[in-house]
Amino acid sequence: MKKAIGVIISVLLLSLVGLSQTFAMTDNKDGTLTDEATGLMWKKNPNGSGDFSSVATYISQLNFGKYNDWRLPTSAELTALPYFFNFNWHYWYEDSKVIQNNMRSAIMVEKVGDSEYNQYVEFVPSTDWAYILAVRGPISTPENPSLPSLSEGWNLVGIKGDSSISADSIGAVASIWKWTAVDGVKTWAVYIPGAEDKGASYAASKGFSLFTTINPGEGFWVNSTTDLPLP
User: Fold this and answer.
1) Residue 195 belongs to what domain range?
2) How confident is the model at residue 135 (pLDDT cuts 50, 70, 90)?
3) What b-and-e string marks burial along 133-144, b requiring 16 or more CB atoms within 10 Å of the CB?
4) What's the predicted TM-score (pTM) here?
5) Residues 110, 173: one domain?
6) Residue 12 lies in a domain
């Protein structure tokens, strides 16, 4: 079972990253980089933000590299970056989504090699500290932006903070899964929104457990029947 789970995680992470383009980043020698493929100019080093509400103020007052038309990147722009100077932390982005208990989606950038990164959504308190990576230029619209929407099929999502959320808040999907422990034994827990008993009978027949709440620090897998914006 552990081996199978590892395979699932790898596939899901690869589906979220989407670094299929060829990138040429030019160092402008003024603290900025230009992506020659998109024409976007990026501030090389991000700034930290105590909470999401401070982002608008920071961006509106940013005058850097002789430019004052900086903005917050979209999720698609941020997850397409080939290199990050700061990693293993969260980044705020323009189309961040809010769910219950004031939890807001941020993109976690996790370094796994010399130039390899895992990028995925985690829900964190809006008051949490996160990076702001400013960009300037027209908003790019890739054909298949993968975040923050759920894509048809399997999606790996995470939650980080002090508050739990209800599985119902994820939206109308086929099923939601998480890896849990029952009496010290690792097993799957499942929630099926469309089932009358929310998946209780299915879980019992497979030796799984049923859950209705996602707790802080837990990652979970969502099987979506269609592309679906996060709530």
Assistant:
1) 153-224
2) very high
3) bbbbbeebeeee
4) 0.55
5) no
6) no
